[in-house]
Amino acid sequence: MTRAAATMTSDDNTTGSNVPEMFRSLPNRIRIWEVGPRDGLQNEATAVSTEIKLEFIDRLADAGLSVIEATSFVHPTWVPQLADADALFAALNQRAGVVYPVLVPNERGLQRALVVGASDVAVFASATETFARKNLNRTYDEQWAMFEPVVAQARAEGLTVRGYLSMCFGDPWEGSVAPARVVDAVQHLRDLGCGEISLGDTIGVGTPVQVAAVITEIAEAGVPIESLAIHCHDTYGQALANTVAAICAGVTTVDASAGGLGGCPYAHSATGNLATEDLVYALRGMGIDTGVDLDQLVATSTWMATHLGRPSPSRVVRALATSETP
Ligand code: MG
Questions:
Q1: Which residues contact 191 (CB under 8 A, 6 or more apart)?
Q2: Catalytic residue positions?
Q3: What are the contacts of 129-138 at 24+ separation with CB within 8 A?
Q4: Ligand 1: centre distance to CA 183 (Å)
Q5: Is 50 exposed, middle or buried (CB count within 10 Å of its CB: 0-12, 13-18, 19+)?
Q6: Within 13 Å and on the Cβ side, how many CA atoms surround 247?
Q7: At what angle do helices 239-248 and 276-285 cross, to 10 degrees?
Q8: pTM across the whole model
Q9: What is the pLDDT of residues 293-321, one digit of tens each?
């Protein structure tokens, strides 16, 4: 089995001419928004040093990733794993052609991001009432007032602003989430000035047709599909299927985490992010370019796993890292 995995990969697949209708309008390229250093590491039990994080980010750029979310300027008591955000960002080996977005929860976080010269920031909102209260200490309606000065100042400073939207496909306290509610939240974020909105399946309960339907409803409400990204978690093993469904619905920006690092600390039962390797493997087989060198990425995640003291949960990392040469 291992030998077969080593000698036969998605590189060798050919789709031929019998491609079903739903797959005929796939994009030539997908932009991967790598969240491993932020969303991944903030949800790992083992904290890693600033030096290891810097090397991780460097290796991700070496592997061809062009958007690498570097850290979060939340208060260190919330996310102690990223308490070194200021020092880390200041020490980044920034390269031409690579952007290094950071999370800013509030005005204080934005000030810290501005001090170190970040050019791309992200705020995080909730599509549901309960998660807004638990994660932001605001009601659903109050959260927009909290983000308004953050987004406005970031825009005034010339920064690009992404809006993360949690619980778009299900909420652990409220159950199902009405697509109309997701549309409403997306429009709030756009009205504030967010140029891109990442739709999060924060607890990983969504399924492919549902994900495609919600995206279609958002697009039909007048939101440009180019402004949407998808962010899936693999709690029920649906992350890759849901992501492919989102791509079939027209999304061309996908969030993923190298090696499948991270989960969600405030929503227990949530497991890791979609592994970047699993995504790249699938897209490569579908003839979609990502600019990523899969072998280099697998080597990076294997290296990071040694620092975290546990193997990567990514199937592709396991298949390629342990494979034998015939
Ligand atoms: Mg995530």
A1: none
A2: 264
A3: 129/174, 130/171, 130/173, 130/174, 131/166, 131/167, 131/171, 131/173, 131/202, 131/266, 131/267, 134/173, 134/266, 135/166, 135/266
A4: 20
A5: middle
A6: 26
A7: 50
A8: 0.94
A9: 999 999 999 999 999 988 888 999 999 98
State the distance from the centre of ligand 1 to the C-alpha of 264, rounded, in angstroms. Answer: 6
CA of 200 to the centre of ligand 1 (A): 7
- Whose tokens are 């390629």? That residue is 320
Q: Strand ranges (DSSP E) for 115-206?
A: 120-126, 160-166, 196-201
Q: How far is CA 48 from CA 73, 239, 258, in A?
A: 17, 26, 15
259-287 pLDDT, tens digit per residue, is 999 854 444 555 789 999 999 999 999 99
Residues 219, 223, 228, 231, CA torsion sign: negative
* Domains identified in the chain and CATH numbers: 3-11+28-322 (3.20.20.70)
Ion ligand 1: residues, CB within 5 A, are 39, 273
- pLDDT digit string (tens) for 71-104? 999 998 888 999 999 999 999 999 999 999 999 9
18 CA → ligand 1 middle, Å: 35
124 alpha carbon – ligand 1 mean position (Å) = 11
- Structure-token match 């027209």, residue found: 250
* Residue indicated by tokens 């904290």: 47
Burial (Cβ within 10 Å: 0-12, 13-18, ≥19) of residue 237: exposed
